[in-house]
Amino acid sequence: MTIRRATDGDAEVIAAMLLRLAEETGDGPRFSSTAAAIRTHGFGESALFETLIAERQGNAIGMALFFRHFSTTRGQPGVYVQDLWVSPEERGGGLGAELLAAVARHARESWGAAYLALTRHGHNDAAGAFYARLGFVAQEDDVPMVLQDSGFSALASGKVSEAAA
């Protein structure tokens, strides 16, 4: 088994693994990412994220998609893992931990990351137990919130409602 940095030629494989993750977590109907979007936003000088791919005999068996993060509370740079996926056949063998370790090592060496953050799906108890075994702790006071679609467009256009002002 090897873990390597993804290239733009891996965009189709990354998209396929992300789709499997979305289906497994119940997000399949909302999943709309494409290989083209991954290629555009994940590679080149303006890349917004990086991806590590785990392979066995040339077949992708897992991935971690991550990006730089900064904590104003800690005053330190870190790394945020957006997506971690291991094929069902490989789960329980330590590959998830190896991928996270590779991300942490890369982030520490590349930009001085001092922590790793991620969010798990609330109903994924197996993932919660896995992260707890690695030493992750839930930040009960942090509640992820998302503004998207028409709400994001309105805010980005400066159309802030009277109630929000």
Runs with pLDDT <50, length 5+?
none
| N- and C-termini, Cα separation | 53 Å
Major beta-sheet overview: 5 strands, mixed
Shape: globular
How many β-strand runs? 5
Structural class: alpha+beta
Q: What is the strand arrangement across the widest sheet? A: 1-2-3-4-5
Helix content: 25-40%
Order of helices and strands: EHHEEEHEHH
Strand content: 15-25%
Number of domains: 1
In CATH, the architecture is: 3-Layer(aba) Sandwich
CATH fold topology: Aminopeptidase
Average of per-residue pLDDT values:
92
Output the number of helix runs. Answer: 5
Structure description:
The structure is a single chain. The protein is α+β, with helices and mostly antiparallel strands. It has one domain: Gcn5-related N-acetyltransferase (GNAT) (Aminopeptidase), CATH 3.40.630. The protein is built from five helices and five strands; from the N terminus they run E-H-H-E-E-E-H-E-H-H. The chain has a five-stranded mixed beta sheet with strand order 1-2-3-4-5. A hairpin with a 4-residue loop joins strand 3 and strand 4. The longest helix has 17 residues. The termini are far apart.
SSE layout and pairings?
Layout: E1 2-5, H1 11-24, H2 35-42, E2 50-56, E3 59-71, E4 76-86, H3 95-111, E5 116-118, H4 125-134, H5 149-156
Parallel strand pairs: 4-5
Antiparallel strand pairs: 1-2, 2-3, 3-4
Helix pairs in contact: 1-2
